[in-house]
Amino acid sequence: MPAPDAIACDQLAKLVGTPRAPMILDIRPAASRASDPRLIASARPLPENSLSVADIRTLSADLSGPVVVACDAGHGRSQGHAALLRHQGLRAEYLEGGHAAWVQAGLPTCNPAPITRLDASGRSVWVTRSRPKIDRIACPWLIRRFVDPRAVFLYVLPSEVASVADLVGAMPYDIGEVFWSHRGEKCTFDTMIREFGLRIPALDRLAMIVRGADTDRLDLAPECAGLLAASLGLSRMHSDDLAQLEAGMGLYDAFYRWCRDATGERHNWENHAGPAR
C-alpha cells in the first residue's frame, strides 16, 4: 500500500491519458535521463539546475490541480520536492518506486526526442491547416494526453502553414512534405504514436478507428463511421477551430476510454417498470 503522499504506479497508470490525469514532473538528474531518455507518458521534464526552493516557488505558480513528482526510484529527491509543492498549497504526491518502477512494470512511456520546437515556457508548439476534421483534432488530443499537456496548437490557412511554422518556431503537422504527416496508408495520428513510442493497446485500437475515418476506409472498424459523423458534426457546430478542438477533446476522451475499458460491454433496452397491470 502506498505511503502517505505517494501514488503507486498502477494507480497513476489508470489516470494517464484521461482528463483526470495529474501533472507529472520528471525531476531525474541529467545523467539518469541520458541513460534512459524516455519519459513517463505525459510527464514534464524539469531542468536539473532549476530545482531550488525558489524555483519550486516559481514553478508552483505555473501549476494547477494535482501533481505527481517522479525521480529515479521514489526516494528523497521526489519526496522532498513533493513536500515543497505541498507547502506552496498544491496537492502533490511522489511516485512510489519512481521512474524505475514505472518502466519495470511496462507502463506507457514517451520518447521526447522528436519534439524539436519549444517556446520560452518549455511548451511544444504545433501548426496545421485550419478547419480541422479528424486527424487535426485527434493529433492534438494525443499530444495533450500522452506527450505534452501544455502543448500549443495553431490553425492557419493551408498556404501559410510553412511560413507560420518558421515565424513562430512551430512544428507543422498533417500537411504534405513534412515529418509529422501521413505515411503510406497510415495517417498522422499513426505517425505520432510510432515516433513517440507510445506502445499502448488502446491507442492502437483508436488509431485504426481514426485511420479509417480520416482516409475514407470505414470498413477498418465499425466505429469509423461514428467517428466520422461526430467529427463532421463538430466541424459544422464550431466556426472557431480552437473551440472545436476543445469540444473534440471530450470526443476522443470517450473513444479512448471505450478502447481501453469497454469494448466487451453491450447495451440493450430493458423494461425496468415491471409487468403492466
Automatic annotation (TrEMBL):
<dbReference type="InterPro" id="IPR001763">
    <property type="entry name" value="Rhodanese-like_dom"/>
</dbReference>
<dbReference type="Pfam" id="PF00581">
    <property type="entry name" value="Rhodanese"/>
</dbReference>
<dbReference type="Pfam" id="PF09828">
    <property type="entry name" value="ChrB_C"/>
</dbReference>
<protein>
    <submittedName>
        <fullName>Chromate resistance protein ChrB domain-containing protein</fullName>
    </submittedName>
</protein>
<feature type="domain" description="Rhodanese">
    <location>
        <begin position="18"/>
        <end position="111"/>
    </location>
</feature>
<dbReference type="InterPro" id="IPR036873">
    <property type="entry name" value="Rhodanese-like_dom_sf"/>
</dbReference>
<dbReference type="InterPro" id="IPR018634">
    <property type="entry name" value="ChrB_C"/>
</dbReference>
